[in-house]
């Protein structure tokens, strides 16, 4: 790409906004040209606004530190300075739906980390390796919005990233039902241990809204574009039930999964299907794409957060302990990085694919 696209980060001061900024440092296609946040932060430089609150392991990129934060609510002004935006705003769902549509109507594509539009029928919710064909629904969304280039695309919830890719790799074996328990890091709530000291040595067996997302979002990902209804129709081929638990880990969502199949795959077939699973990001060699999406670890005590959460720079999924079960057919343990693959990184990979497919272009 001869000239980098100008990117705006909406909600730039929060944890996911910070992760976007860290991931986009020296990105070959995208340049962070603008940062926006709530009115109380507007007018400050970025480094002033996040002083004492920067949660990433790497320093604030120098070219972003001096940027003056814009008011995220001044949609026209923000949109005029960028080619597209990443959205990580902290608002109510109704407010998020409203503001993301407002940006799209300025002919500014929105790639969102938020959940507000995940069930809007003509908004694609995409894991680029799994369902890139869902971007085809964007043409119907543009018809509804009355736009030429403006649209909204979203990535799914972080809680499904450690098991939905695995079940997708096993699609040919026809999985029919799964029982999933997720053990989710505190950064999924936008916090670290300094913010949330009561999580030290603690487990909380409830995360609001997570179980519904864990059970329903994979079905939408496995659905199809209905050209008559002009929307995404979720799959009905599988049932998932889940429990979601907050655990004292900073980064990394772990899942334990029990699954039944219509077919009768062997252990070797299941492992080969995982390890060979590839998608458009790998075929196109997108900048953030993991070379191998899913790795299988043979040790009995893997995957571990401490050892495996940063596999493929956090863009890959680690799996272990695949074994036959006495009630279900098979069971396994999965692990993914919740703020990279599960949040900002998943959105960056979506934006890269949208750019490669010419949905996102320079204004």
UniProtKB/TrEMBL annotation:
Family membership: Belongs to the aspartate-semialdehyde dehydrogenase family.
Coiled-coil parts of chain: none
Catalytic residues in the record: 158 (acyl-thioester intermediate), 253 (proton acceptor)
UniProt KW Oxidoreductase keyword: yes
InterPro entries, sorted: ASADH-related (IPR051823), Asp_semi-ald_DH_pep-lack (IPR005676), NAD(P)-bd_dom_sf (IPR036291), Semialdehyde_DH_NAD-bd (IPR000534), Semialdhyde_DH_dimer_dom (IPR012280)
Keywords of this entry: NADP, Oxidoreductase
Protein name: Aspartate-semialdehyde dehydrogenase
Single GO biological process annotation from the record: threonine biosynthetic process
Enzyme class: oxidoreductase
Single GO MF annotation: NAD binding
Protein EC: 1.2.1.11
The Semialdehyde dehydrogenase NAD-binding domain, residue ranges: 6-138
């Amino acid at each position: 790409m001869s000239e980098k696209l100008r990117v705006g980060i909406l909600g730039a001061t929060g944890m996911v906004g910070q992760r976007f900024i860290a991931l986009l440092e020296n990105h070959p296609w995208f340049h962070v040209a603008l940062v926006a946040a709530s009115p109380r932060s507007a007018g400050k430089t970025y480094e002033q606004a996040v002083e004492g609150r920067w949660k990433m392991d790497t320093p604030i990129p120098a070219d972003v530190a001096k940027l003056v934060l814009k008011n995220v609510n001044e949609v026209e002004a923000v949109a005029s300075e960028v080619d597209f935006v990443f959205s990580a705003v902290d608002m109510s769902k109704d407010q998020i739906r409203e503001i993301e549509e407002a940006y799209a109507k300025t002919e500014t594509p929105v790639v969102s980390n938020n959940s507000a539009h995940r069930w809007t029928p003509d908004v694609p919710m995409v894991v680029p390796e799994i369902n890139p064909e869902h971007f085809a629904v964007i043409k119907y969304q543009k018809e509804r919005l009355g736009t030429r280039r403006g649209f909204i695309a979203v990535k799914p919830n972080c809680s499904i990233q450690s098991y939905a890719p695995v079940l997708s790799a096993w699609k040919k074996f026809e999985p029919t039902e799964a029982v999933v328990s997720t053990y989710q890091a505190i950064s999924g709530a936008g916090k670290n241990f300094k913010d949330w000291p009561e999580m030290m040595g603690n487990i909380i067996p409830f995360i609001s809204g997570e179980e519904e997302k864990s059970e329903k979002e994979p079905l939408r990902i496995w659905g199809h574009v209905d050209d008559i209804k002009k929307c995404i129709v979720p799959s009905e081929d599988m049932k998932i039930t889940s429990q979601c638990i907050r655990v004292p880990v900073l980064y990394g969502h772990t899942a334990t999964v029990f699954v039944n199949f219509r077919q009768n795959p062997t252990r070797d077939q299941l492992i080969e299907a995982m390890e060979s699973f590839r998608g458009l990001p790998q075929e196109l060699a997108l900048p953030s794409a993991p070379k191998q999406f899913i790795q299988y670890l043979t040790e009995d005590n893997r995957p571990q957060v401490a050892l495996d959460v940063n596999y493929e720079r956090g863009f890959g999924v680690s799996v272990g302990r695949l074994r036959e079960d006495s009630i279900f057919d098979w069971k396994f343990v999965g692990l993914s990085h919740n703020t990279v693959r599960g949040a900002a990184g998943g959105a960056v990979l979506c934006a890269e694919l949208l750019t490669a497919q010419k949905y996102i272009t320079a204004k």
